[in-house]
């Protein structure tokens, strides 16, 4: 049976294609909002020492802080590293010790350790360096009392710069690990 001058079969195929593509878009899995997790067996080595850790932000006394804002203000949520290094400085260890104490006082919070690098170097190298830094922080947190909670790590490499300028001070701000806390489901 011939339809409309030979366009019947082509039209039917084209219609089926659009129908399938529309349905596949509706039933496709939702894109993952969680970053890809990297895990390494051990933290890498590098130069010793690091820039001074930033002091935790002072809390406004008029409005009490809660959750991640309280964590950042009380314990500090970022530690910094020397260039091309994943070794924890004394300042970084002091910040991590405050994080351990805060998390012990606030059980149930979940954490994610994000590793970052500056913009110098290849993407692959910076992803690995960010992962090594995140694992170094994870190991420190676990060996200092946080073994009971899972601590996932992720590396963003040079993808999430906080400062982007040619000065060395900008690069130092990007060589960091950030500990992100989320409240338990019951508190949300």
Q: Could you characterize what this model shows?
A:
Residues 38-58 are annotated as: Disordered. Residues 1-27 form the signal peptide. This protein has a domain at 67-187: OmpA-like domain (60s Ribosomal Protein L30, Chain: A). The model is unreliable at 23-60 (pLDDT under 50). The protein has a four-stranded mixed beta sheet with strand order 1-4-2-3. The protein is globular and about 40 Å long. The protein has five helices and four strands. Helix 4 links the parallel strand 2 (110-116) and strand 3 (153-157). It is of the alpha+beta class and 188 residues long.
Key terms for this structure?
four-stranded mixed beta sheet, 39% helix, 60s Ribosomal Protein L30, Chain: A, globular, alpha+beta, 4 strands, 188 residues
- What's the CATH class label of the domain at 67-187? Alpha Beta
Element-level helix/strand string: HHEHEHEHE
CATH homologous superfamily placement of the domain at 67-187:
OmpA-like domain
Q: What share of residues is helical?
A: 25-40%
Helical segment count? 5
Number of strands: 4
Q: Decide which structural class fits the backbone.
A: alpha+beta
CATH architecture level-2 label of the domain at 67-187: 2-Layer Sandwich
What general outline do the C-alpha atoms trace?
A: globular
Radius of gyration using CA atoms only: 24 Å
The overall average pLDDT, rounded, is: 75
Low-confidence stretches: 23-60
Q: What is the CATH T-level topology of the domain at 67-187?
A: 60s Ribosomal Protein L30, Chain: A
Spatial separation of the terminal alpha carbons: 63 Å
